[in-house]
Amino acid sequence: MRDSDQQLVDVVLRRADADESLDEETRMLILAALESEDSLRDAIGAERTAERPESSDLSDAMQDREPVGAFIDEISVAGFRGIGNRAVLDLYPAPGLTVVSGRNGSGKSSFSEAFEYAISGSSYRWRNKKNAKVWTRSWRNLHRPVPCELRVRLAVEDQGAVTIGVDWAGDSLDDSSVWVQRRGEKRIPGVESLGWQAAVELYRPILSYDELGGLFEEGPSVLYDALAKLLGLEQIADAENRLGTELRFRKQARTDATAAARNLKSALAGSDDERAALALKQISRSGDLVTVTKLATGSNTGGSDGVLNQLRAIAALTIPPRDVIEARVAAVRSAVAALAEQSDAVVGAVQQRQTILMAALQYHSSHGDGPCPVCGEGQLTGEWHSRIETELASEKERITEYHDRKQRVAAAQRDLITVVNSVGAVRSVADVALETLGAFEQAQKSWRNGPDDAAALATHVEQSHAALEEASAVLKTEAENELGQREDEWAPLATDLMAWVKLEKQARASDPVVKLIDNARTWVKNNAATLRNERLAPIAEKSAHIWGVLRQESNVELGSVTLTGSGTQRRVELEAQVDGAPAGALGVMSQGELHALSLALFLPRAASPASPFRFIVLDDPIQAMDPSKVEGFVRVVEELAQTRQVIVFSHDDRLASAIRQLGVTARVVEVARGSQSSVAVTNAQSPALRFVSDARALAKDPDVPEDVKRRVLPGLCRLAIEAAARDVFYTRQHQAGAARETSEAEWSDARSVPAALALALKGDRDADISGWRSAKPWRSKSMGIAGGGVHRGMFGDPADAVADLQRTVDDVLSA
Which residues are in coiled coils (predicted)? Predict the structure, then answer.
């Protein structure tokens, strides 16, 4: 994570920790949403015990630490836009100001667009122009379309030279081959290895006239988005959008369940099925889903006395099958037949005889032999006693068998009655007119009302069984039909109930998560404005400083800069004062002032210490400015050039004039276009050559006294040689990948002309350069004037001294 992003996370973390209304889970979601979509989803599914990341507690020094950066060393273009044959724009890969000058149509903007395309893969002019199709169709040069290629050589700290290449073989703008190559290594497809894709949009090191003007012309949200993106504030917007997207996704389950419940309630209310009323009570967020499921599947139909259960009972009615009846009837008849073999009268007489004989035996046992006390004729003897006992025992067995047979008849009759009674009574069903119920009840009544006699009962049951069986079958069919009709009517509702149960389960699982996400999103939305403007404050302060330099004679004083609103209502509020009176900035500014304001707003971010780009490229930034604003612009870029490589493409001569008039150190490169899109680049003026020009002008000026010339020229000689040495030294250092701080420290230690030249030519300020110095006579002369001449003045002809200086500077620059 970038330091700037970490700072924002720290701010959010501290603010969230201070908010006692937030629980830990909501804080986790907020931080995850700031990170990425995947992090948010992971956090939503994470355990409650997941650890929350702590604040990084980066020190200010760590937060302001500059990352490894890059300078532009060279831009070469062939077959692209206004450039035909290969043209090369050599640049000074170190902090400083370079002006690339040329008339409209000279090809200078082709270099700018080529560079922007190589770095970002696009061009603002092509993306945003209303006639973008025309621009994107005319990207290949008309005169020399082949080869069509771009090369941007960068001097990257700690890496050395890195080249970005773009080649086209086809006719489509998108049909390009992009690659990166580090010195001594193979080409790597794409520019992803540089890791600059996000930084290009975040820091916008390339700004054109079109882009500066478009910020205020394309609506308030465009300026808002541009500022938010440049400030890294899109992280907040992304977090809110991620939470919003996830919230909509997670709420869909509840939305679907609610919609299904609404439709289901309407359908249930219109149903006469008893289950509908029961289900209707449960269709809510707190409803019993188990009960609803049972109602839908038929395992719960509302109680035993319900219509459906009564119909099911009738449909399940069973009549003893004929084989069972026949078996029971046969058992009764068999028992009756066995009993009929022994007459009741005979058995009764035998029992009476046994009673008399038992009394006689007892009498004999008591009184002994003698005449029979009943008839008086027979004799009761011992032989008689034995014979009678034997007869009585035999008769007792007959009586026992008789009683057993009688009990078997009763048991068989009871079994038959049990079968008869197994057919339960059928009650009428409320609100259901069963037409065959009466016939069944009549048949059952007849079936039950049999005679008491076992044999007659058997005959009755046997004869009435068929009628009962037929009546039962008809009744069951009618009940089944009624049930089927009701189930057919219920089936769609049952399906809808099960569908709702499924949706409601999903919704109930999502409800707690939805609440968390909604709380997190609400918090981010409510705190976004404060967070944005806290992050914006230091940039706004720098913008105010730049505007103060740029505005020069303008009466408009820039006040606060704030981001307000959200969604389609997002906008930037720019407060200003005109002659001390408050006013909205945009309403009182001229076109030139608006362009200057755009620069004031966006240059601070382009020059951010966190940017990996040590360069700022501005394409035609002053064409709408009045002369005073141009001078202010020069002062601004002069200040930026202390730590940044500032490259300004301009066709406006006022820029070069202002640079000369203000005495600002700058390199001026001229671009000229010949026939057949032939573009030539010439070094019109570098700091070293400018000092040479100043020395030449001084030497030729007849109004300057000779003694003054002899005192001043040595200083100009020294400045020219040191400037040339500085150019060579910094160029070599950055091409070798040396850190800027290291180069600046080494250069600061080179306190004399020989030390500066030794550092430039040999890479060591203590190196011996006497051989180089004595190789050409003009070198010794120039170094002598630049050395001792500064203190004692120069001798000889000033014109000759300037000629020697020109050659010496040329030698140093070409070394």
Answer: none
